[in-house]
Amino acid sequence: MTAPVLSCSGLVRTFGALRAVDGVDLALPAGARHALIGPNGAGKSTLFQLLAGGLSPTAGRVSLDGRDVTRLSDARRARRGLGQTFQHSSLFPSMTAAENVALAAERALGAPWSPLPRHRPALAERVDRLLADVDLLARRDVPVAALSHGECRQLELAVALATAPRVLLLDEPAAGMSPAESERLAALIHRLPAEITLLFVEHDLDLVFRLATRVTVLHLGRVLVSGSPEEVRGSREVQEAYLGTGRREDLFLPAAGATATAPDDAPAARDASAESP
Amino acid sequence: MTPGRRRLALAAVLAALAIAPLVLSTYGSVTLARMLAFALLAASLDLLVGVTGLASLGHGAYFGAGAYTAGWVALHVSRSAAATLAAAAAVSAVVALVAGSVAVRARGVFFLMLTLAIGEIVEQLAQSWHGVTGGSDGLYGIPAIQLGGATLTDARWFTWFVLAVFVAGLAVIACLRRAPFGAALRGIRDNEPRMRALGYNTYLYKLAAFVIAGTLAGVAGGLFAAQQRLVTPGDLGMASSVAALLAVIIGGEGTLWGPCLGAAIVVELRDVLSSSLGGHGSLVLGVVFVAVVFLLPGGLARLRIRTGDAR
Asked: Left if phi > 0, otherwise alpha if psi is -120 to 50, otherwise beta: which for A60?
């Protein structure tokens, strides 16, 4: 039984009286495709920051490859193979798409400290390959400011992949994307090497149920349900967390034992976000 | 501008600077030397301001540390140009390392205030350490430096020497800007949290930039001391720091030659034209600065380079 690649136990983070993350346990085996969902305010982004190292926990531990990284900074965790993308594209605006990816690739595979300008064809080739993987090769010399929102999201992913991470945290990778772009993103994530361990937050449940082998639902800082996509789909608690305790039989698959009643006027919702975007 | 044209322009400028001492008067040559030393200071500050995104109001401290060191070495140890400049570089590097290790932990306005405070501390040190720095009298009577046995009292030879050091300093900066190190600094300027998320130890990069900028400022100080033959506490105080920052902004931060142009303008207005402007050189400089900020926010360098090549 191999140790989980990324795990946390008893993770707590408070902001004054608010317990944003309230005792979360998570364990990701190598090659996992694990989705983290939950209504807004559930603590997903905070949990991500705790795992990535951008925020320090009030209590609890984070482990990477079985080693305790709770005290390590985000930069040190990144050097140990943890990569992440951000919900709002976090790129380098003064540079072109290729330069963004090169900056990331350089750190992991090149000589980022080098004070001498060098021509490295191997690095340039890797940058081009990464851009091609996200369908941005044609836009390699375009400054970031001129890229569309969807292209920025794609570039965000290319930049994260450039460091050759073993664990990848994706924070709403499809945020703001059109259905066609989401489709391309899903295909791209599907193509990721099986060795990479993936934890992603997503509101687009189509994407979640398509890509994830395990789903964890967070609500008010705690894990509500953690299991296969089907278990989560049918779970009564999850439905109540998202939609309240009013009538909702026609919005979700019926929970075990519930009977179907006459349909409401409420439209079938494919996106589980409790707030409109 | 295409790379070919830029090289041509660069060669033309270097040639003009090289010929200048032959055609200028003694005063002209001396002024050119001052401008070149100040240009090196401004270019070193731009490594912090334009490339790394760290605006510093205390860069004069390292310039002054270098100037005092060069002056002291020339007075008490050796008049060799190499010795004075090497000592200036070493001392200012150490001062920058100590100051930077504290300042660079802060960001934005807090960093600015820390550099300001450090600058003030260093100036006070120069005022009170009478034994070494001569207190408020400063170091005077600094002898002319010697290069290869010959004393550089001739204005032309001195200016050529300063030009050579200036070009070498700028070459170092240009090299760093194009290297992965420079790209990392620009990344830190653009988005430091992302750089950390990618695994860069941004503190060390910023500290390295701070020390390199401080060292080059110290070399500029050494040149300044050799030219003026007098170093006073005012040379490493707010006046120098502000003048350097003005030069960077007027010329265009983030470009290589913009700050050099800005430095020439600052020296011209503040030192050369000041008497003919009724002593109001600094006032005019202030007006120019405000005009540039409003009308040319990217500085003079970006006025010409329309392709936005300067970053």
From this structure: left
